Amino acid sequence: MVHLESFRANAVDAPAVCVAISRAKDAVALYTDSRARLTEALGLHDGAQIGAIDGLKREVEMAME
User: Fold this and answer.
1) Distance between CA atoms of 1 and 41, rounded to whole angstroms?
2) Span 32-45, average pLDDT
3) CA-CA distance, 58 to 44, in Å (whole number)?
4) Which of 16, 44, 47, 52 sits 20 to 30 Å CA-CA off 30?
5) Residue of 63, 4, 60 whose CA lies nearest to 37
6) How many CB atoms lie within 10 A of CB 14?
């Protein structure tokens, strides 16, 4: 089990989180107060999957701004 609070992200970096998760032998349970804020603070992707068309559409929209 890993408990990470988003407001304490400055005390834990992404490599430390990866080490904590990778040491599990059977299963991992990650607990946090806010997945979105924690992934933002650690500079990680939130795991949401974006289709290729949607990703391309976003790039075109951003280029047109």
Assistant:
1) 20
2) 80
3) 19
4) 52
5) 4
6) 13
pTM of the model: 0.52
Amino acid at 28: V
What average pLDDT does the segment 20-39 reach?
85
Integer CA distances (angstroms), 54 to 15, 49, 61, 62, in order = 30, 10, 10, 12
Per this entry, what is the length of the chain?
Answer: 65
- Tokens (6 digits) for 1: 């089990």
Domain ranges of the chain: 2-64
* DSSP reduced 3-state for 32: strand
Residue 55 phi/psi, 5-degree rounding, is -65, -40
pLDDT band for position 45 (cuts 50, 70, 90):
low
Q: Residue holding tokens 């790039």?
A: 59
